[in-house]
């Protein structure tokens, strides 16, 4: 351990109560910064997951309405070969009606292939009763629609197309995706069943995929569009379709960053002012050390080290406190028995906060370090 | 014998409104292995002279040579290094670091110059503690010792780097007569045993009379310079 570091440690240890108060105060500030950052991160992640997590993030349809796609297999192969894409599924979507007593209720029939069912819409994870479709002639419906139609598992449901076809299907399960528009209007079946119902032959209405990196969806969609080079197809991505959500998230991020920057600045000012007082308290010691021949740079390092040590300890304690606060928040702030947000442990954010705390403390230590440079041993000796 | 410290035409002026000149053209040399005192009334400029001799302060005009090397052109770090290796200080107040033990305080000048203390240095420290009669309290914090023990620890600290010169400014000013006699006996002992040059600033003529040379300062000038 270098001499300035040893002296810095000893100075901090010699005034234990003062050091504990300093570290405690700064740790609380850092914990607020970590808590605010992690909370907003978790809220945003939850919001995005709820909005687009259980739906395709890129959708390829015909540029004209009500036109199906024939060459979908080529599109799937091409999309899968492209980097940045996740699972790629296909589907048929068409409007139809179901009976409710003497009334009819409009529904959207969705014929999904296995990839779309499991990986794009995550229906297997959100089925709360019954089982996935095993054979043609079976359908799944959402919670809201099942309640509206007062239908039970295994009941028959007659679906009528605008073209006049009417087919009875057996209800094999109920899902709840948490999106009212889907849970209240979708009748999900397999691809072949929907194609037969609407007479689409082997054609589909859309190719749908996910992207592992949500925020690259617009770039990946652009790549697909360029590769397809086909004006008859339209490539849509979730970011373009949810601009207001993105704006909200962005404003939230900016305000969160501002709060964090203000906290960091206040931490730095607190450390700088505390250490400036420490230079005054320790001026006698610094003067003696200089009389004994310590170099000016080594004497000033004592204060930089003090700043860094306070930063490291307050950083560790502050991050632990911040994580603890968020954990308490996710555990105790509940709505209907469920946590308001999911606890999201972001090590990169915490490491960043830690590094920022240390760098800010080090910079804060430079101010008293500069003051100590001006101190001469004669001043201290004359003071007696 | 060669001069270990030499002052040539040293003036010291404190700038202000008005300027105050404290030293006037001081020419003075201290030989190695000598035992000297500087006496003078309060405000005569003797402490300022000692600070300049010890390179803690710079003269306004003139030269200070330590071991034949002129310090005027040196940078602050260079002067600090010369001070660390050549000069040991004992002040009126002990100026120990209260955060450290007596032993840690004593080793501080060595650690500043060399980092880790060697076995020889630790043995040397033990020998000095023994000589000063304070071995018993060497692991006490500086604040957990009596005034006499603190001052003796400061003396041991001044000697740890085996300096060529020890500068002592009223080193017994805060001690009783028994402790005072004891400390001057130690100084003389060290001077004879290790050949360390001593320059002791005092206002007490009885103390000065125990040294081999008395330099008297009045109003910033050398009034008298007597060698026994």
Q: What do you see in this structure?
A:
The complex is a heterodimer of chains A (384) and B (228). By secondary structure, chain A is an alpha+beta fold. Chain A folds into 2 domains: 3-51 and 245-383, no CATH class; 58-210, no CATH class. Chain A has 14 helices and 12 strands. In chain A, the strands form 2 sheets. In chain A, strands 2-3-8-5-7-6 form a 6-stranded mixed β-barrel, surrounded by 4 helices. In chain A, strands 11-12 form a two-stranded antiparallel ribbon. In chain A, a hairpin with a 5-residue loop joins strand 6 and strand 7. In chain A, helix 2 packs antiparallel against helix 10 and helix 12 (296-332) runs antiparallel to helix 13. Chain A is elongated. By secondary structure, chain B is of the alpha/beta class. Helix content of chain B is 36%, strand content 29%. In chain B, strand 4 and strand 5 (69-70) form a beta hairpin. In chain B, helix 3 (102-114) runs parallel beside helix 5 and helix 4 crosses helix 5. Chain B is globular and about 50 Å long. The two termini of chain B are 16 Å apart. Classes of the chains: A alpha+beta (384), B alpha/beta (228). The interface between A and B is medium-sized, with 26 and 29 residues.
Lateral arrangement of strands in the main beta sheet of chain A: 2-3-8-5-7-6
Task: Tell me, rounded to a whole number, the average pLDDT of chain B.
Answer: 88
* CATH-derived architecture of chain B: 3-Layer(aba) Sandwich
Distance between the first and last residues' Cα of chain B:
16 Å
Roughly what fraction of the amino acids of chain B lie in strands? 25-35%
- Please report which band the strand proportion of chain A falls in: under 5%, 5-15%, 15-25%, 25-35%, 35-45% or over 45%: 15-25%
What is the general shape of chain B?
A: globular
Overall 3D shape of chain A: elongated
CATH superfamily of chain B: P-loop containing nucleotide triphosphate hydrolases
SS class of chain A? alpha+beta
Taking all residues together, what is the mean pLDDT of chain A?
Answer: 87
Helical percent range of chain B? 25-40%
């Amino acid at each position: 351990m270098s001499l300035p570091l040893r002296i810095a440690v000893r100075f901090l240890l010699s005034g234990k109560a003062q050091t504990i108060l300093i570290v405690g105060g700064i740790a609380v500030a850092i914990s607020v910064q970590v808590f605010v950052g992690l909370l907003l991160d978790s809220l945003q992640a939850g919001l995005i997951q709820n909005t687009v997590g259980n739906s395709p993030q890129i959708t390829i349809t015909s540029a004209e309405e009500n036109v199906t796609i024939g060459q979908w297999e080529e599109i799937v192969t091409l999309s899968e070969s492209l980097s940045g894409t996740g699972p790629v599924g296909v589907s048929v979507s068409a409007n139809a009606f179901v009976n409710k007593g003497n009334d009819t209720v409009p529904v959207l029939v969705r014929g999904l292939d296995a990839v779309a069912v499991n990986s794009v819409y995550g229906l297997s994870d959100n089925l709360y009763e019954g089982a996935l479709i095993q054979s043609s002639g079976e359908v799944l419906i959402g919670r809201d629609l099942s309640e509206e139609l007062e239908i039970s598992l295994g009941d028959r449901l007659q679906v009528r197309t605008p073209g006049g076809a009417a087919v009875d299907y057996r209800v094999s399960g109920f899902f709840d995706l948490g999106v009212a528009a889907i849970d209240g209007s979708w009748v999900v079946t397999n691809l072949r069943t929907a194609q037969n119902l609407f007479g689409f032959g082997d054609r589909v209405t859309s190719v749908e995929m996910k992207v592992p990196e949500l925020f690259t969806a617009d770039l990946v969609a652009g790549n697909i569009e360029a590769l397809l080079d086909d004006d008859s197809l339209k490539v849509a991505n979730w970011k373009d379709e949810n601009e207001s959500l993105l704006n909200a998230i962005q404003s939230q991020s900016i305000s969160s960053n501002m709060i964090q920057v203000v906290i960091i600045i206040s931490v730095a000012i607190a450390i700088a002012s505390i250490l400036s007082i420490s230079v005054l308290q320790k001026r006698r010691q610094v003067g003696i050390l200089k009389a004994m021949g310590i170099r000016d740079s080594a004497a000033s390092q004592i204060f930089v080290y003090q700043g860094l040590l306070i930063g490291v300890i307050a950083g560790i304690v502050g991050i632990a406190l911040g994580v603890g606060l968020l954990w308490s928040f996710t555990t105790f702030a509940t709505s209907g028995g469920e946590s308001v947000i999911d606890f999201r442990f972001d090590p990169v954010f915490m490491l960043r906060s830690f590094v920022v705390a240390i760098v800010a403390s080090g910079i804060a230590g430079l101010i008293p370090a500069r003051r100590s440079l001006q101190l001469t041993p004669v001043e201290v000796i004359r003071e007696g | 014998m060669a001069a270990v410290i030499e002052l040539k035409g040293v003036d010291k002026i404190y700038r202000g409104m008005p300027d105050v000149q404290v030293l006037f053209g001081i020419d003075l040399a201290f030989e190695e292995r000598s035992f000297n005192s500087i006496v003078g009334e309060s405000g005569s400029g003797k402490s300022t002279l000692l600070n300049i001799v010890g390179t803690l302060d710079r003269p306004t005009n003139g030269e200070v040579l330590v071991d034949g090397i002129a310090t005027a052109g040196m940078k602050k770090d260079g002067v600090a290094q010369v001070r660390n290796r050549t000069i040991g200080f004992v002040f009126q107040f002990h100026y120990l670091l209260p955060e450290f033990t007596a032993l840690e305080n004593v080793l501080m000048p060595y650690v500043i110059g060399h980092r880790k203390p060697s076995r020889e240095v630790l043995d040397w420290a033990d020998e000095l503690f023994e000589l000063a009669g304070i071995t018993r309290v060497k692991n006490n914090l500086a604040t957990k010792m009596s005034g006499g023990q603190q001052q003796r620890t400061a003396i041991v600290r001044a000697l740890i780097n085996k300096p060529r010169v020890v500068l002592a400014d009223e080193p017994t000013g805060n001690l009783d007569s028994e402790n005072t006699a004891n400390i001057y006996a130690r100084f003389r002992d060290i001077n004879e045993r290790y050949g360390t040059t001593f320059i002791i600033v005092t206002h007490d003529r009885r103390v000065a009379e125990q040294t081999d040379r008395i330099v008297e300062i009045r109003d910033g000038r050398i009034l008298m310079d007597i060698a026994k």
